[in-house]
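Q: I have 461 residues here and want to know how they pack in 3D. Can you give me a structure?
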Amino acid sequence: MAKVVGLADFDRHLTKRNGFYSYKRRVPAAIGNLDPRYPTVRVALGTREVGEARAKRDAHERADDLLWASLTEGGDQVAAEARYKSAVARAKALGYTYRHLPAILSEESGESILSRLRAVQDVKPASPQETAILGGVPRPQVSVWRALEIYIEEIVADEISGKSPAQRELWENTKRRAVTSFVEVCGELNIDEITREHARQFYNRWREKIAPNPKSGQHATHTPSSGNREVGNMRVLYQKYFEYMGVEDITNPFRNLSFSEKKVGQKKKKKRLPFTAEWIEKHILKPGALARLNDQARAISLVLAETGCRPSEVANLVESQIFLDHPVPHIAIESRLDPEDPREIKTDASVRVIPLVGVALEALKKFPKGFPRYRDKESSMSATLNKYFRENGLFPTEKHVIYSFRHGFEDRMTVAGLDTELRMMLMGHTNSRPEYGEGGTLEWKQAQLAKIALPFDLAIV
């Protein structure tokens, strides 16, 4: 009976003869009639070193996995992509950069071509090795939309696996929006048809939205950051797709195309306005002010007032992040690693512990398991709160929003003289200073936050 080989077998598919290693692997019986190497693949690795042999084995193993996938895939497009990736991986395993034959003949030196011809003398005619060395598989024609699918489903699948469904949808929408915008300007192109001229057309369309010619009479409709996000998403898609396909000698047409965001005073102008302590106490915490909100939205508002959290952080609290029975009641803002219910946190600095004081503590006593109505629905929660606050005169000006709780919390800490690093820690802001110690005990943090706790009537909770 054949040995069952698992991924944990570090020396899988390796054999040794006269001190030299070879890659030896059985061809699956289901495709034996499609792979001329059936029943067994044998490739001399030309090394006595086990580490080098394992690295070369991994490259051949990936190439065969891709080849066999291409032979079993149902769709022509997917099969063509798999065959191409297999050829690229196999060429790399053999020490060559994969190029389609026309590119080899037009771009490589005579010495390089001779090197390839010498190499194929040692392999079987029409074998996968010969095909890889001589560039026998053309690059598949892949639309920019198909490239995006591959990017999402294969290239960055591991990177986005920790996002919740709502986070993933938002992330995907930003990528799809960039491709939609590009297609509107340049048309439905295959990704390898995109030229510098297409990239400049796309860039210039955004320039017209960001900095229109004064003579046109038009006004700016978008910010530089919007344009940089769209152009940047296309640049990343192009780069990551071709890297994934093993194409190393290609120039990114979107390179060095960006808009300046350095404008004096612009950041200060865009900063959200804070709620003052007086406004929160006299208007928002006033008995009856939040009475017509649903219980969970009202409680979220109260937690925001005394924690400075981002609205999404409070809306997505779960029971395991709420510690009411601890000597210092607190919440833990952290990623959820449960594959059935994942959620990412914005940055490493955003992972933090916040003591509960005042009205926030009382609100979470009513909802010790969090707020299921708004879990992974933070947009709905923000819309509900902003609409209610606006209709009930709870915003001091038209420029105030629910996020004003967060900015007001930071201002209140500053006025009370709380330590700068403590403020940054509680806000979840990145601190460039080297990290030493734990940043203070929970008891100390609780005592500091107690200095800014607002008076309230328990009946409002």
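Q: Anything worth noting?
A: The radius of gyration is 30 Å. The chain has three domains: 14-133, 144-268, 277-460.
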